[in-house]
Amino acid sequence: MGITILFGTFLLCLVIGVPVAICLGVSSAAYLVFYADIPLVVFSQKIFSGVDSFVLLCIPGFIMAGNLMNGGGITDRIIRFASAGVGWIRGGLGLTNIAGSMLFAGISGTAVAEAASIGAVMIPGMKKEGYPVSFAAAITAAASTVGPIIPPSVPMIIVGALSGVSVGRMFMAGAIPGILLGLGMMIVCYIISVRKNYPRQAWKGWKELWHAFQGAFWALMLTALIIGGLLSGVVTPTETAILACVYAFVIGVYIYQGITLRDVPKIMIDSAITSAALLALIGIANVFGWIMANEEIPQTIAKTMLSFSTNKYVIILLINILLLIVGMFMETIAALIILFPPLLAVAVGVGIDPIHFATFAVLNLMIGLTTPPLGICLFVCANIAKTPLSSVIKEIPPFLAGNIFVLLLVAFIPQLSLWLPNLLFGAR
Hints:
Layout: H1 2-15, H2 20-34, H3 41-51, H4 58-71, H5 74-86, H6 92-108, H7 111-128, H8 133-144, H9 154-163, H10 167-173, H11 175-196, H12 205-232, H13 237-255, H14 264-294, H15 297-308, H16 312-327, H17 332-349, H18 354-367, H19 376-385, H20 389-395, H21 397-412, H22 415-425
């Protein structure tokens, strides 16, 4: 009965279009009120315990740093550098879109921010150059999923908080899979562009490439600062996020001069609102996860999976199928908080390394951001392109296929995610 109330209320809210965080909160409250003999004060206690983690302080810091850099005109500089490098190839603006997202990933750490920032520049630009607007929107949405894989990454921070795994190791684990994801999408874009004879730009010469690199240099150094700080061991991930904010402020105000001191309070407020919404989702999802644990749903999931097989590779396949389905309907952070702990227990039980599991789990749910019917990046890019969502969905399957192929490589070849953290931090 309790499970029926919990999931019935959640699905009903989801179907009628209620935001995911509210869905989780309403269904959890309904369970406590109508089924469990538990005081409602537990609701607020579990929300607090869900966000009472030092590691989660990274999130406002990296969001603030990203907003400061983006406000400083960083998007245009990164796109200019990417265009100088790959714009001369057939389908060059599509490749520029993907390359720009890979470079921007080291600044934003979130897919939606990347889709909005890159899309606002690239979608109108691709349309002007003769690309179908639906293709421009689809490639922007697909490319934005690189953001939370290449460090820094908000989902990786959350995974670190949930599992106790070093956030620094999680960041490094996503680097190679993120690059593979971007390269895979470039191959798909090039094949489509050749088949449909999409335009390409003229080669602008090494001088333009050098000038473009100089323009993007300070932005790219933010990623170096983050990774260098983590690898040195001198600062924690939270302190690294604070240093990134200071660096982004200095670059945005005094070097790029894209923002003024008067703009900073608004950027701080916007960052605070985004951070508060994200942390509220984490807290409310913690209540939902606690109820699931009380109902022994994680144990049921584990037993069901292990009843099919105890073979590691079969379990990897089952987990990926489950997460791909979940990613079609549920927001990434909520899905991570609810499903990551039980699935981690299953994975560790059959000998899968926690970092390897966390990497392909995050990658899997990132793909969900561009998977119909509820892929949020599809909605963002369709809105920027001012085109029907259905036309964007028609263009997304080749990119989804390429991304799923990379997902399978990462899932079944552990060293793609484990080699770099083991090299830099030592084998566990």
